[in-house]
Amino acid sequence: MEDRRTLLLDSASLYFRAFFGLPDSMRDKDGHQVNAVRGLLDFLARFITDYSPTHVACCWDDAWRPAWRVELVPSYKAHRVVRADPAGGWVEEVPAELVGQVPWIRATLDALGLPIVGAADHEADDVIATLATRSTWPVDVVTGDRDLFQLVDDAAGVRVLYVGRGVAKHERIDDAWLQAKYGITGAGYVDFAVLRGDPSDGLPGVKGIGEKTASSLIGRYGDLDGIVANAAKLSPGVQRSLAAAMDYLGPAREVVGAVRTLDLPDVDLTLPSVPKDLDLFAALADELQLGGSADRIVAAMAAAGQRAGRST
Questions:
Q1: Model pLDDT for residues 217-231, shown as the tens digit of each residue
Q2: What whole-number distance in Å separates Cα of residue 268 and Cα of residue 279?
Protein backbone atom coordinates (compact mmCIF):
# COMPACT_ATOMS: atom_id res chain seq x y z
CA MET A 1 0.00 0.00 0.00
CA GLU A 2 1.29 3.47 -0.89
CA ASP A 3 2.43 5.89 1.80
CA ARG A 4 -0.60 8.03 2.50
CA ARG A 5 -0.54 11.78 3.05
CA THR A 6 -3.42 14.23 3.11
CA LEU A 7 -3.25 17.81 1.82
CA LEU A 8 -5.83 20.11 3.45
CA LEU A 9 -6.27 23.49 1.79
CA ASP A 10 -7.57 26.63 3.45
CA SER A 11 -9.31 27.52 0.19
CA ALA A 12 -10.32 31.13 0.88
CA SER A 13 -6.86 31.96 2.24
CA LEU A 14 -5.38 30.74 -1.03
CA TYR A 15 -7.81 32.27 -3.52
CA PHE A 16 -7.63 35.65 -1.74
CA ARG A 17 -3.85 35.45 -2.05
CA ALA A 18 -4.15 34.55 -5.73
CA PHE A 19 -6.55 37.43 -6.39
CA PHE A 20 -4.34 40.08 -4.80
CA GLY A 21 -1.06 38.58 -5.98
CA LEU A 22 -1.69 37.89 -9.67
CA PRO A 23 -2.32 40.36 -12.52
CA ASP A 24 -5.92 41.43 -13.08
CA SER A 25 -5.18 41.16 -16.80
CA MET A 26 -6.02 37.44 -16.57
CA ARG A 27 -9.48 37.41 -18.16
CA ASP A 28 -12.08 35.01 -19.52
CA LYS A 29 -13.62 35.27 -23.00
CA ASP A 30 -16.09 37.89 -21.77
CA GLY A 31 -13.44 40.02 -20.13
CA HIS A 32 -14.06 38.99 -16.49
CA GLN A 33 -11.12 38.57 -14.13
CA VAL A 34 -10.03 34.98 -13.54
CA ASN A 35 -6.77 35.54 -11.63
CA ALA A 36 -8.13 33.91 -8.46
CA VAL A 37 -9.24 30.82 -10.39
CA ARG A 38 -5.94 30.47 -12.23
CA GLY A 39 -3.85 31.22 -9.16
CA LEU A 40 -5.64 28.66 -7.00
CA LEU A 41 -5.14 25.97 -9.64
CA ASP A 42 -1.45 26.83 -9.87
CA PHE A 43 -1.10 26.70 -6.09
CA LEU A 44 -2.80 23.30 -6.04
CA ALA A 45 -0.56 21.99 -8.81
CA ARG A 46 2.54 23.17 -6.95
CA PHE A 47 1.65 21.61 -3.61
CA ILE A 48 0.47 18.36 -5.20
CA THR A 49 3.73 18.15 -7.15
CA ASP A 50 6.00 19.08 -4.24
CA TYR A 51 4.34 17.09 -1.46
CA SER A 52 2.87 14.04 -3.25
CA PRO A 53 -0.42 13.76 -1.35
CA THR A 54 -2.64 10.75 -1.87
CA HIS A 55 -5.67 12.59 -0.46
CA VAL A 56 -6.80 16.21 -0.87
CA ALA A 57 -9.59 18.36 0.54
CA CYS A 58 -10.45 21.94 -0.39
CA CYS A 59 -11.82 23.18 2.94
CA TRP A 60 -14.43 25.91 2.82
CA ASP A 61 -15.77 28.76 4.95
CA ASP A 62 -19.48 28.00 5.03
CA ALA A 63 -19.54 30.86 7.55
CA TRP A 64 -16.58 33.25 7.53
CA ARG A 65 -17.73 34.84 10.84
CA PRO A 66 -19.81 32.26 12.73
CA ALA A 67 -22.51 33.69 14.99
CA TRP A 68 -21.40 31.57 17.94
CA ARG A 69 -17.87 33.00 17.79
CA VAL A 70 -19.23 36.56 17.59
CA GLU A 71 -21.45 35.89 20.61
CA LEU A 72 -18.36 34.87 22.56
CA VAL A 73 -16.14 37.76 21.38
CA PRO A 74 -18.16 40.49 19.60
CA SER A 75 -15.03 42.10 18.13
CA TYR A 76 -14.19 38.91 16.23
CA LYS A 77 -13.52 39.95 12.60
CA ALA A 78 -15.74 42.99 13.14
CA HIS A 79 -13.40 45.23 11.15
CA ARG A 80 -14.08 43.14 8.01
CA VAL A 81 -17.87 43.57 8.13
CA VAL A 82 -19.46 45.78 5.49
CA ARG A 83 -23.02 45.41 6.71
CA ALA A 84 -25.38 42.99 8.40
CA ASP A 85 -27.00 40.44 6.12
CA PRO A 86 -30.83 40.63 6.35
CA ALA A 87 -30.88 36.84 6.00
CA GLY A 88 -28.65 36.52 9.05
CA GLY A 89 -24.91 36.86 9.55
CA TRP A 90 -22.67 39.51 8.04
CA VAL A 91 -21.40 40.55 4.63
CA GLU A 92 -17.61 40.57 4.36
CA GLU A 93 -15.68 43.29 2.57
CA VAL A 94 -14.59 41.46 -0.58
CA PRO A 95 -13.89 43.01 -4.00
CA ALA A 96 -16.71 42.37 -6.47
CA GLU A 97 -14.16 41.04 -8.96
CA LEU A 98 -13.28 38.28 -6.50
CA VAL A 99 -16.87 37.51 -5.49
CA GLY A 100 -17.65 36.81 -9.14
CA GLN A 101 -14.85 34.25 -9.36
CA VAL A 102 -15.89 32.08 -6.40
CA PRO A 103 -18.61 30.15 -8.30
CA TRP A 104 -16.08 29.43 -11.07
CA ILE A 105 -13.58 28.21 -8.49
CA ARG A 106 -16.14 25.81 -7.07
CA ALA A 107 -17.21 24.62 -10.53
CA THR A 108 -13.61 24.05 -11.58
CA LEU A 109 -12.72 22.12 -8.43
CA ASP A 110 -15.84 20.00 -8.80
CA ALA A 111 -15.06 19.18 -12.44
CA LEU A 112 -11.58 18.12 -11.38
CA GLY A 113 -13.03 15.90 -8.66
CA LEU A 114 -11.26 17.73 -5.83
CA PRO A 115 -13.71 17.62 -2.91
CA ILE A 116 -14.96 20.84 -1.34
CA VAL A 117 -15.70 20.27 2.34
CA GLY A 118 -17.53 22.75 4.55
CA ALA A 119 -19.78 22.75 7.61
CA ALA A 120 -22.76 24.96 8.48
CA ASP A 121 -21.92 27.92 10.75
CA HIS A 122 -18.24 26.97 10.81
CA GLU A 123 -15.05 28.15 9.17
CA ALA A 124 -12.57 26.24 7.06
CA ASP A 125 -10.30 26.20 10.13
CA ASP A 126 -12.79 23.96 11.89
CA VAL A 127 -13.12 21.63 8.91
CA ILE A 128 -9.34 21.40 8.63
CA ALA A 129 -8.97 20.75 12.35
CA THR A 130 -11.56 17.96 12.28
CA LEU A 131 -10.07 16.25 9.24
CA ALA A 132 -6.53 16.56 10.59
CA THR A 133 -7.50 15.25 14.01
CA ARG A 134 -9.23 12.15 12.71
CA SER A 135 -6.58 11.32 10.11
CA THR A 136 -4.54 8.18 10.75
CA TRP A 137 -1.70 9.23 8.45
CA PRO A 138 0.40 12.42 7.96
CA VAL A 139 -1.33 15.70 7.11
CA ASP A 140 -0.09 18.91 5.49
CA VAL A 141 -2.26 22.02 6.02
CA VAL A 142 -1.83 24.80 3.45
CA THR A 143 -2.83 28.21 4.80
CA GLY A 144 -1.85 31.81 5.36
CA ASP A 145 -3.60 31.81 8.76
CA ARG A 146 -1.32 31.52 11.80
CA ASP A 147 -4.20 30.29 13.95
CA LEU A 148 -3.81 26.89 12.33
CA PHE A 149 -0.38 26.56 13.93
CA GLN A 150 -2.41 25.08 16.79
CA LEU A 151 -2.78 21.89 14.73
CA VAL A 152 0.97 21.28 14.44
CA ASP A 153 1.79 17.98 16.09
CA ASP A 154 5.03 16.19 15.28
CA ALA A 155 3.88 12.98 16.94
CA ALA A 156 0.71 12.86 14.83
CA GLY A 157 2.51 13.92 11.65
CA VAL A 158 0.56 17.18 11.26
CA ARG A 159 2.42 20.22 9.94
CA VAL A 160 1.43 23.53 8.36
CA LEU A 161 2.69 24.76 5.00
CA TYR A 162 2.47 28.47 5.76
CA VAL A 163 2.14 30.82 2.80
CA GLY A 164 2.28 34.06 4.77
CA ARG A 165 5.36 35.20 2.83
CA GLY A 166 4.03 33.82 -0.44
CA VAL A 167 3.49 30.40 -1.97
CA ALA A 168 6.99 30.30 -3.47
CA LYS A 169 8.51 31.12 -0.06
CA HIS A 170 6.17 28.98 2.04
CA GLU A 171 7.50 27.62 5.32
CA ARG A 172 7.11 24.13 6.78
CA ILE A 173 5.83 24.66 10.29
CA ASP A 174 6.49 21.86 12.77
CA ASP A 175 6.98 21.84 16.54
CA ALA A 176 10.70 22.60 16.19
CA TRP A 177 9.92 25.68 14.05
CA LEU A 178 7.37 26.92 16.61
CA GLN A 179 9.79 26.30 19.45
CA ALA A 180 12.48 28.30 17.68
CA LYS A 181 10.10 31.13 16.68
CA TYR A 182 7.83 31.47 19.71
CA GLY A 183 9.21 29.15 22.39
CA ILE A 184 6.10 26.96 22.31
CA THR A 185 4.76 23.94 20.44
CA GLY A 186 1.51 23.58 18.53
CA ALA A 187 -0.23 22.44 21.70
CA GLY A 188 0.40 25.83 23.30
CA TYR A 189 -0.49 28.02 20.34
CA VAL A 190 -4.16 28.72 21.20
CA ASP A 191 -3.35 30.09 24.66
CA PHE A 192 -0.37 31.98 23.23
CA ALA A 193 -2.62 33.65 20.64
CA VAL A 194 -5.27 34.46 23.25
CA LEU A 195 -2.72 36.22 25.45
CA ARG A 196 -0.90 38.00 22.61
CA GLY A 197 -4.01 38.89 20.63
CA ASP A 198 -4.46 39.07 16.86
CA PRO A 199 -5.59 42.39 15.32
CA SER A 200 -6.27 40.66 11.98
CA ASP A 201 -9.08 38.71 13.68
CA GLY A 202 -10.23 41.47 16.02
CA LEU A 203 -8.86 39.71 19.13
CA PRO A 204 -7.49 42.30 21.56
CA GLY A 205 -5.32 39.98 23.63
CA VAL A 206 -4.41 40.78 27.23
CA LYS A 207 -3.29 44.37 27.62
CA GLY A 208 0.28 44.52 28.85
CA ILE A 209 1.14 40.98 27.75
CA GLY A 210 3.04 40.80 24.49
CA GLU A 211 4.52 37.94 22.52
CA LYS A 212 7.60 37.41 24.70
CA THR A 213 5.67 37.47 27.97
CA ALA A 214 2.99 35.14 26.58
CA SER A 215 5.65 32.69 25.44
CA SER A 216 7.44 32.84 28.78
CA LEU A 217 4.25 32.27 30.77
CA ILE A 218 3.19 29.27 28.69
CA GLY A 219 6.68 27.83 28.82
CA ARG A 220 6.69 28.13 32.61
CA TYR A 221 3.12 27.11 33.46
CA GLY A 222 1.94 25.08 30.46
CA ASP A 223 -1.35 26.74 29.58
CA LEU A 224 -3.85 29.40 30.63
CA ASP A 225 -5.20 27.27 33.46
CA GLY A 226 -1.70 26.85 34.85
CA ILE A 227 -0.97 30.54 34.46
CA VAL A 228 -4.14 31.60 36.29
CA ALA A 229 -3.56 29.02 39.01
CA ASN A 230 -0.08 30.47 39.62
CA ALA A 231 -1.05 34.12 39.25
CA ALA A 232 0.21 34.93 42.76
CA LYS A 233 3.74 34.09 41.60
CA LEU A 234 3.65 36.59 38.76
CA SER A 235 4.74 40.22 38.74
CA PRO A 236 2.17 42.74 39.99
CA GLY A 237 1.78 44.16 36.49
CA VAL A 238 1.02 40.77 34.90
CA GLN A 239 -1.35 39.94 37.77
CA ARG A 240 -3.28 43.15 37.12
CA SER A 241 -3.39 42.46 33.38
CA LEU A 242 -4.75 38.95 33.88
CA ALA A 243 -7.30 40.09 36.47
CA ALA A 244 -8.63 42.73 34.08
CA ALA A 245 -8.94 40.17 31.28
CA MET A 246 -10.61 37.28 33.12
CA ASP A 247 -13.93 37.75 31.29
CA TYR A 248 -12.08 37.66 27.97
CA LEU A 249 -9.80 34.66 28.44
CA GLY A 250 -12.35 31.83 28.44
CA PRO A 251 -14.44 33.04 25.47
CA ALA A 252 -11.34 33.98 23.47
CA ARG A 253 -9.88 30.54 24.04
CA GLU A 254 -13.02 29.00 22.55
CA VAL A 255 -13.00 31.42 19.61
CA VAL A 256 -9.35 30.83 18.71
CA GLY A 257 -9.54 27.07 19.22
CA ALA A 258 -10.52 25.31 15.99
CA VAL A 259 -13.33 22.78 16.38
CA ARG A 260 -11.97 19.25 16.00
CA THR A 261 -15.20 17.28 16.34
CA LEU A 262 -17.47 18.39 13.47
CA ASP A 263 -19.92 15.86 12.09
CA LEU A 264 -18.66 16.09 8.53
CA PRO A 265 -20.16 14.21 5.58
CA ASP A 266 -18.38 11.05 4.53
CA VAL A 267 -16.34 12.28 1.56
CA ASP A 268 -13.73 10.30 -0.36
CA LEU A 269 -10.63 12.51 -0.29
CA THR A 270 -8.57 10.27 -2.59
CA LEU A 271 -6.76 12.48 -5.10
CA PRO A 272 -8.04 11.53 -8.57
CA SER A 273 -5.56 10.87 -11.36
CA VAL A 274 -7.77 12.47 -14.00
CA PRO A 275 -10.54 15.07 -13.82
CA LYS A 276 -13.85 13.65 -12.68
CA ASP A 277 -15.63 15.33 -15.63
CA LEU A 278 -13.00 15.83 -18.31
CA ASP A 279 -15.43 17.39 -20.82
CA LEU A 280 -16.76 19.88 -18.28
CA PHE A 281 -13.27 20.81 -17.13
CA ALA A 282 -12.16 21.29 -20.74
CA ALA A 283 -15.17 23.52 -21.37
CA LEU A 284 -14.45 25.59 -18.25
CA ALA A 285 -10.78 25.85 -19.18
CA ASP A 286 -11.76 27.13 -22.61
CA GLU A 287 -14.44 29.55 -21.41
CA LEU A 288 -12.34 30.94 -18.56
CA GLN A 289 -9.14 30.87 -20.63
CA LEU A 290 -7.29 29.00 -17.91
CA GLY A 291 -4.44 28.14 -20.28
CA GLY A 292 -1.34 26.74 -18.61
CA SER A 293 -3.04 26.68 -15.20
CA ALA A 294 -5.43 24.01 -16.45
CA ASP A 295 -2.58 22.03 -18.00
CA ARG A 296 -0.50 22.16 -14.82
CA ILE A 297 -3.18 20.92 -12.45
CA VAL A 298 -4.11 18.03 -14.77
CA ALA A 299 -0.44 17.09 -15.13
CA ALA A 300 0.10 17.27 -11.36
CA MET A 301 -2.88 14.98 -10.72
CA ALA A 302 -1.68 12.48 -13.32
CA ALA A 303 1.85 12.44 -11.89
CA ALA A 304 0.50 11.96 -8.37
CA GLY A 305 -1.56 9.01 -9.59
CA GLN A 306 1.49 7.43 -11.20
CA ARG A 307 3.54 7.86 -8.01
CA ALA A 308 0.77 6.18 -6.03
CA GLY A 309 0.52 3.34 -8.54
CA ARG A 310 -2.98 4.25 -9.68
CA SER A 311 -3.97 4.01 -13.32
CA THR A 312 -4.51 7.26 -15.20
A1: 999 999 999 999 999
A2: 22
